């Protein structure tokens, strides 16, 4: 019997539960004897198997099945609330409590194993990326620098100048990709200071304004007066610029991208809202995966790095569906953190 098959495991658990129930119902005539307690203890075997194999859902399904299978015997023999009836009810309650505890522990263990595997995978990817990025960085700087020097030797309108401009432009794009890869592979080092978040938002808007104008998208920041907050200004601007550019690229022409900054409890919240197509169901977590991208010239590291920066600030990055259309990317930062 192949125990690695879920169907086989379910059949085995069901068979054990039914066998114990039948043996208990027809093999014992006296309630409260030693064998009675022995059979009740045997029900913990399928409970443990279900919890180990299927987690909380499997353990609860098994405990409820055991409870339902034993319920007719309780009802049939129930005349008055005696110690035996109390023992039956207590035992069924214990089954469900044990199922919840086992299932939750197993689910938590699986999550921790998954996180450990993911961390190991990302560490290996980061190490490989770091080596590649370092090897690419120096020749790209040389190509870009020599390209700019050559451009000075040609007059405006020269076809060779246009080709050099393409070389310099593409070199800058590759340099940006290399910076993203290095940001992903390196541990973050924050240089905190007390900052006015509205000022950081305005400075980020100025950087994004050119891309928004080219696509005829309006980027609008709602007025606010939030408290000053301890952050690394360069890193937070990197997050905001990335989110704003994503919102501009996702929005159709003529739409509005809104950036709202406000205080919520002990947190400072920044919402970047677009009017794009949003994200498909089940893809919310996937878009934070390294190298996941829908862009032709993207690295798929922008949101991964943005979340890494926000989490380094002890905050979190959330995705919410915009009312009606589009997506809201929410940055939540704690206010109480000191420089």
From TrEMBL:
Domain of life, per lineage: Bacteria
InterPro entries attached to this UniProt entry: HATPase_C_sf, HATPase_dom, His_kinase_dom, HisK_dim/P_dom, HisK_dim/P_sf, Sig_transdc_His_kin-like_C
Pfam families with a match to the protein in the record: HATPase_c, HisKA
Molecular function (Gene Ontology), one example: phosphorelay sensor kinase activity
Keywords: ATP-binding, Kinase, Membrane, Nucleotide-binding, Phosphoprotein, Transferase, Transmembrane, Transmembrane helix, Two-component regulatory system
Gene3D superfamilies: 1.10.287.130, Histidine kinase-like ATPase, C-terminal domain
Domain Histidine kinase: 131-337
Reactions performed catalytically: ATP + protein L-histidine = ADP + protein N-phospho-L-histidine
Residue ranges of the TM segments: 35-54, 88-105
E.C. numbers: 2.7.13.3
Family matches, as PROSITE patterns: HIS_KIN (PS50109)
Protein known as: histidine kinase
Naturally occurring in which organism (per UniProt): Syntrophobacter fumaroxidans (strain DSM 10017 / MPOB)
Classification lineage: Bacteria, Pseudomonadati, Thermodesulfobacteriota, Syntrophobacteria, Syntrophobacterales
């Amino acid at each position: 019997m192949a125990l690695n098959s879920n169907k086989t495991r379910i059949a085995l658990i069901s068979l054990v539960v039914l066998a114990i129930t039948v043996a208990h119902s027809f093999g014992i005539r006296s309630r409260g004897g030693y064998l009675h307690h022995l059979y009740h203890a045997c029900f913990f075997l399928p409970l443990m198997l279900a919890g180990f194999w299927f987690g909380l859902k499997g353990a609860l399904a098994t405990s409820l099945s055991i409870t339902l299978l034993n319920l007719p015997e309780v009802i049939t023999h129930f005349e008055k609330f005696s110690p035996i009836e109390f023992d039956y009810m207590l035992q069924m309650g214990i089954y469900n409590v044990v199922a919840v505890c086992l299932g939750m522990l197993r689910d938590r263990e699986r999550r921790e194993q998954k996180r450990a595997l993911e961390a190991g995978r990302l560490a290996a990817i980061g190490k490989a990326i770091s080596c590649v990025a370092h090897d690419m960085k120096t020749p790209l700087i040389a190509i870009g620098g020599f390209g700019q020097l050559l451009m000075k030797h040609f007059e405006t309108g020269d076809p060779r100048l246009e080709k050099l401009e393409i070389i310099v432009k593409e070199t800058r794009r590759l340099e940006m990709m290399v910076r993203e890869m290095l940001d992903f592979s390196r541990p973050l080092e924050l240089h905190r200071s007390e900052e006015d978040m509205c000022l950081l938002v305005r400075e980020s808007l100025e950087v994004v304004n050119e891309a928004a104008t080219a696509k005829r998208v309006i980027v609008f920041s709602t007025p606010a007066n939030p408290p000053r907050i301890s952050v690394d200004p360069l890193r937070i601007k990197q997050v905001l610029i990335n989110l704003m550019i994503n919102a501009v690229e996702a929005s159709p022409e003529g739409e509005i991208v809104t950036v709202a900054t406000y205080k919520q409890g002990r947190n400072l919240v920044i919402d970047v809202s677009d009017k794009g197509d949003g994200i498909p169901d089940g893809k919310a977590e996937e878009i934070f995966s390294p190298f996941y991208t829908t862009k032709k010239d993207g690295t798929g590291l922008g949101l991964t790095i943005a979340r890494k920066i926000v989490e380094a600030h002890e905050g979190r990055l959330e995705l919410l569906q915009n009312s009606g259309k589009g997506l809201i990317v929410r940055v939540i930062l704690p206010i109480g953190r000191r420089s």
